[in-house]
Write a structure and sequence with these properties.
By secondary structure, the chain is of the alpha/beta class. The protein has a single domain, classed as NAD(P)-binding Rossmann-like Domain (Rossmann fold, 3-Layer(aba) Sandwich), CATH 3.40.50.720. 48% of the residues lie in helices and 11% in strands. It contains eleven helices and seven strands. The protein has a seven-stranded parallel β-sheet with strand order 3-2-1-4-5-6-7, sandwiched between helices. α1 links the parallel β1 and β2. The radius of gyration is 20 Å and the shape is globular. It comes from Agromyces soli.
Length: 287
């Protein structure tokens, strides 16, 4: 059992996966819930700059100046520009804005909710615009995709950009250098209220696009448990990871292909490795 002294923030805590993980973390410590529905501590629309600023200000006050964990679960899936504004820019703004509160914790951690839909190719233009940090430009790309009937790409593209951001940010001095672990969890199709409401209509499309060997829709509880572990004090050495909790979709559709990528070194690093290996070989021969 975790210490009740730990304080967590969960965005999107008013429904679905966010509410489930907030309830789970409430058994382990104090939870500040953020959302737009009922039963939250902070009402803020993270698709807007004003909402992001409000959340950061109110959490600063409610937390007492320290957070131990953040679960960024707020998200939209509709083909609207707000999906990009919330999923990518809202998430990044909240994490960056509250990083200083995490840095005051003895075991700080943050995790974002991604999606197994990122296994599909998104809009490269939208991903690049998101990663540039230019929200106006990214929303312009989103509007163009909607006009050309490619709005279905907004959700996965915003999450792909978020995956890239987590990988890049997690190893920087502001995060790893402050002892803050930062990861992403990519759920598959799980039985949230929203999914179940439209399951009969969407089943054939979803099962074809994202086949899940363990069945669909999957359970919500295991994903919530994984998110809770990611922000627990036990997680002190996993960072920068994108973890698929998807009923086997990743393994099924990509097979062994992820292992085709290996470390690459610059020429001076190769020379350093050669010198070090020769030195070790010489030491071994002298024994």
């Amino acid at each position: 059992m975790e210490s009740a002294a730990r304080t967590y923030l969960v965005t999107g805590a008013d429904s679905g996966l966010g509410r489930t993980v907030a309830d789970l973390l409430a058994e382990r410590g104090r939870v500040i819930r953020c959302g737009l529905g009922d039963g939250v501590d902070v009402r803020a629309d993270l698709a807007s700059a004003e909402g992001r600023a409000r959340l950061i200000h109110e959490v600063d006050s409610l937390s007492g100046g320290r957070l131990d964990g953040i679960v960024a679960a707020a998200g939209l899936g509709a083909p609207r520009v707000e999906t990009v504004a919330l999923n990518h820019f809202g998430t990044v703004a909240v994490l960056d804005g509250l990083r200083r509160l995490l840095a005051r914790s003895p075991a700080p951690a943050a995790v974002v909710v991604s999606s197994s839909s990122t296994l599909n190719r998104g809009s490269g233009a939208l991903v690049r615009a998101c990663l540039s940090g230019n929200e106006e430009k990214a929303l312009g790309v989103a509007r163009r995709l909607i006009r050309t009937r490619r709005g279905s790409q907004l959700y996965r593209s915003s999450k792909i950009a978020l995956n890239h951001w987590v990988r890049a940010a997690s190893v920087q001095a502001e995060w790893a250098g402050s002892g803050i672990v930062l990861n992403a969890v990519a759920p598959g199709i799980i039985g949230t209220e929203l999914v179940l409401r439209t399951w009969d209509r969407d089943r054939q499309l979803l099962e074809t696009a994202l086949p899940q060997p363990l069945g669909a829709p999957g359970p919500v509880a295991p994903v919530a448990a994984l998110l809770a572990h990611a922000v627990s004090p036990e997680n002190r050495f996993m960072t920068g990871q994108l973890i698929y909790c998807d009923g086997g979709t990743d393994a099924l559709v990509r097979g062994a292909r992820p292992q085709r990528l290996f470390l690459r070194y610059r020429p001076r690093e190769i020379l350093a490795l050669l010198r070090a290996s020769r030195r070790l070989a010489g030491d071994a021969a002298a024994v």
